[in-house]
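Sequence dictates fold. Next comes a concrete instance:
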Amino acid sequence: MKTAMNSNITLSDNLERELISQAISEERPVNLVKMFKAVISSIATAVSMFVEMFKDTEKAIDQADRKDHNTGGFSW
């Protein structure tokens, strides 16, 4: 299914006010535990990806060193 966005669509003032009023009055329970888990999960994913990037870089440096011994023994 394709979703098309039309930037030329405008809302009437009354409709816009009604939508804003509904959004403000709508009470959403805040689940702090769920939010905390989501943040921790995001941080863990970022750290994991960062570690994998370093491992891949180290592997690439080792391969380059084996192919061409002119790298000067560079290591992390």
